[in-house]
Amino acid sequence: MFDFSLGEMLVIIVIAILFLGPDKLPSVMIDIAKFFKQIKKTIGTIQDSLEQEIHATGIKEEALAYKKELLKASDDLKRTTDISAIGNHLTNLHDDVISDIEKPQASKPDPVAEKITFEKKPKQENTDV
Hints:
Elements: H1 6-80, H2 83-102
C-alpha cells in the first residue's frame, strides 16, 4: 500500500518521538492503528456495496423486463377500451346487420296461418239427437 523502506520508517518514528514525546506516542500509535482499521472496514463496505450493485443490476434488468410487459399490457388495455375504436367497430357491426337484413332471404313456404281474433264464434247446434 505505502512504499516505505525501513530507513524511511525509522526516520518517521524518530521525528514522531521528538515531536510527540514518549508519553503521547503509544496513544498516537493506537489512533493510527484505529485509523487504518477504519480504512480497511470502509474498503470492505465498498466491496460489499459493489457486489450488491452488481446484484442490483440483475434486479434492475428484471424490473425493466416487467416494466416492458406492463407497458405492453397497458397499451393493449388502452387499445381495447378506446371508445372511438369501439364506436367504429359498432358502426361496422351495425352496417353488417343492416346489410344482412336487406338481403333477400330464400322464400320458405309459410305454414297455414291461423287468424287470431277476439270475436265470439257462433254456437253450433247439436243435431245428433
